[in-house]
Each structure stands twice: as C-alpha cells, then as structure tokens.
Amino acid sequence: MSLRSTAKRWTYLVHRWLGIGGCLLMLLWFVSGMVMLFVGYPKLTPGERLAALPVLGDAHGLLGLSALPAAVQAEPESVALTTLRGEPAYVVRSGSNVGAWSARTGQALLPVSAQRAEASAAQFAGGQAFVGAMRVDEDRWTHSRALDAHRPLYRVEVGGARPGDVYVSSRTGEVVLDAPHVQQHWNYVGAWLHWLYFLRMQSVDPAWTWTVIVLSALCTLAAVSGIVVGVWRWRFRGHYRSGAKTPYAEPWMRLHHLIGLMAAAFVFSWIFSGLMSMNPLGVFSSTREAIDTARYRGGIVAVEGALAEPVALLAAIDQTRFKPVEIQWRRIGGELFAVLLDGEGDTRIVSHAEGRLQVARVLPDAWLQRKVRAMSDAPVRGFGLLHAPDAYFYARAPEAMNGAAVRRFPVVTVDFGDAEMTRVYVDLATGDPLLTMGHRERVGRWLFYFLHSWDLPAMLRQDTARLGVLLLLSIAGTALCSTATVIGYRRLRMKYRRRRS
C-alpha cells in the first residue's frame, strides 16, 4: 500500500472514530452555544451593583480616611466608601485580602452573620430575602477567581422582580453575585453545560482545564479530517453512477456529507476557537509582566485634608446635582484623588489643587500622558484618545462572557515600544488600566473572540443580524452533529450485532 493510500485510509478512520466519540459532545456544544447567545453565565455587572446602592445623602457624622487603620491608609487606591447593610462603610482591598470598616464608628465590620447577609441581599434585590442563608465556599455559579477574596460566601434566596439566589461576601457583606432562577435554569442547557462545568470542582482546576483542552483538540481534529474527507468524496467534475455529486445513497450519510460541506468552515472555526478560549499552554499570555501598576500608582501619600473627608467631597459635588452612590480613592504618580460614581455608572473626579477641591468629569489627558510613562521601562511610542470602539476595546452585552468589563469612552491608548508592542487602554474617568494587549493577546483575540462570536464593533452594531446568522449557522452545526450521532449509533449497533453473532 502506498504512502498516499495509507494516509487516506487513516484520515477516514480518524474522522470516523473521532466523530463517533465526539458527536454527542459537539451536539451539546452547539445546542448550549445557541442558548448562550441570549443567556449568559451569572455575573454581577458594575451597572447592577451600582444601581442597587442608595445615594450617599446625609454626610453628617461620616469619618474620614484617617479613621481607618494605618495599614489601610497606605493603599488609598483600594478604598471605597459605599453602603453595606444599610449603613455607610469603607471597603478596603489589598491584594487577595478584603475588609470593611464602619464609616460612622471606624470599627471593623466583623463577622458577617447569616442575618446580615440576608439584609444585604434584600437591599440589593429590592424584595424579600428568605431566611436561611447558606454558607458555601464554592458552587456551580461561583467558580470565578474574582470571588476568592470573599470566600466563603453566603447564598441567599431572594424574591422581588428577579427571584433567585444572591451571593454575599462573608468578609464585607457586599453582594458579589446574583443568579436569578430563570438564568440558572437556562444555564443548565447553556453556559454551565457548554463549559462542562459539571466536571469542574473548584476555581483553579487543572484536571477540568486539561479535560476541556484535550476534548476540544480531538473534536477539532475530527472537524479537520471531516473537511478533508468531504472534499475527497465530492465530485467537482462529473458525477457518480447515480448521477449525484456525492457517493452516498443512504439518506443519513448523504445528508451528513452535504451539510458538512456547507457548514464546514463555521464548524471548524467554532470548535477551534473554543479550544483557543482555554489558552492552552499560555500561548496567548505575554511571557512577562507588561505593566508595572505599582510604579504607575506611585509611592505612599499622606491621607489627610479635605480630599480624605467624605463630607467635603459630597459638599463639593452637591453644587453639580450629581448623586453619588459610592466614592473610590485613587492614586496615580503619588497624587491622590477621589472618583465619585452614581447609580448609572457615571463619574466625577474630585482633586485638590490651588488650595481647594476641584470637580471634573475626566482626568486631564496631558497630565495622564506624563504619568503613564511609569507603567513600563519601554519608551512610549504612541499616545492618543479613542472616542469610539476599535477592534480590541469595545463593550459587550451583559450576557457575553466579558459583558461585565468596564468599557467607557473616551479612553486613552498608550503604545509602548517593548518586545510585545504592548498597548494599554486607560480609563480617563478613573485612571485605571482597563485592557492590556500585547502581541500574543492580540492573536488570541482573533483566534478566540472573533472566530467564536463575531464581535467586531461593526458587527455588534448590527447585532440582530449578527445573532440571526450565528443562530442559523449553529442550527446547521447542530444538524451536522445530529446526523453524525445517528450514523455513529448505527455503526456501533452493527458492530455489536456482528460481534454477538
């Protein structure tokens, strides 16, 4: 047998048995993927969190940052004045640690009891919280590593307009996740099934990660071999004796061949991009830390004066009719300022200059241009303002996997001349680096996000048409995998009967 014949035979065998082994899995992926176009995995978006907070109205009696422990004052960019359990409180984040202090007494708000968790959940949901908060370390909806600092969590069932489960931090009493019952039910045939989360035991689970990578790789190989076999069996010139272009007379085989040829590109790109979503071996991660956030923030500064007093900040903003629900303190280049947010996510910046508090909507871009140079040892090759989405920085609907990411405009773009040609998108409203894209991350963006969900800004602006086309192609993929399931079942049944006889 020639080398060509051997290669051809093995291609047929690979497609046959990988198809039989993976047809049901790919069928589930296509069905669950269609659900995910409309219902995403439970998450708490910044908009949902802020909308549930009351306005910081009466500032009388509120303590300033100086009332917090000295260790907390050293990291003012991680401090926020918000509302917990109906009372103003400071929430302090430092690395993987998080804590809360009363803004009335300065005392640490510990411990968070089940009753307090129920009160926080009821305030967030705007409805009744049923008694019986359950303490959980991790469950099917709380695999995100962003929740690690808050574990264990309290799961509280709530009523209201969106009845479901609300998860409350045991460290601060904040609501960190909401999972409405309707969303949970759809997720069992959506994201939870799509990501094979029934195999995932914890937030960091190498066994689950490599299981998904290996299965995705095998299914990608099945798709590639299927395309090759399909093209081999199609008569581009002439016809078979039956008069058809395909050699298959049996209906299921014939249908599988025809659908496979029509949907081949989509099926391959969709399964392959699913494999790329797992970032196998870290191929889409920069080999070194591109941005030095600590140096960008600058050294420790004194937390004193009017800028550290919520009473003064609220008085300064009162003249603008802005209604803040939260105050966050930031530090850039060793300069302290406050960011006030309202219930719709809009912001105001309060800084101390010329001996008084000054209010602005955004940071001065010329000032920020000087500060961002501290992010990297590499020279700054470009600095600009982006007023509309580009191919890398764009907003997604809440149900999308990255739907909770902050995407505000205008945004500053900073290009560094390092080996990865790193670009950083910096929020003008807060000074926060919102997105860092090196060469590898840019490649990953195209091989995963684009191929998997067609998320170019121009396509997202025609979202109904985009969803309609993706839905039709997903139906074709479902039909292809359904025919493969029937064919695989019949072949296995035939082999079983032969073996018995």
Question: How are the SSEs ordered, and which strands pair?
Answer:
Elements: H1 3-36, H2 46-51, H3 70-73, E1 79-84, E2 87-94, E3 97-102, H4 114-125, E4 134-136, E5 153-158, E6 164-169, E7 175-180, H5 181-187, H6 191-194, H7 206-233, H8 251-276, H9 293-297, H10 310-318, E8 324-332, E9 335-342, E10 347-353, E11 356-360, H11 365-371, E12 380-386, E13 411-416, E14 423-427, E15 433-437, H12 439-453, H13 457-461, H14 463-500
Antiparallel strand pairs: 1-2, 1-8, 2-3, 4-5, 5-6, 6-7, 8-9, 9-10, 10-11, 12-13, 13-14, 14-15
Helix pairs in contact: 1-7, 1-14, 7-8, 8-12, 8-14
Strand arrangement across the biggest beta sheet: 3-2-1-8-9-10-11
Give the number of domains.
3
Q: Which structural class best describes the helix and strand composition? A: alpha+beta
Helix percentage: 25-40%
Q: First CA to last CA: what distance?
A: 31 Å
Rg? 27 Å
DSSP strand tally? 15
Subunit arrangement of the protein: single chain
Largest sheet: 7 strands, antiparallel
Give the integer mean of the pLDDT values.
91
Secondary-structure element order, as H and E? HHHEEEHEEEEHHHHHHEEEEHEEEEHHH
Strand content: 15-25%
Uncertain stretches = none
Shape: elongated
* Tally of DSSP helical segments: 14
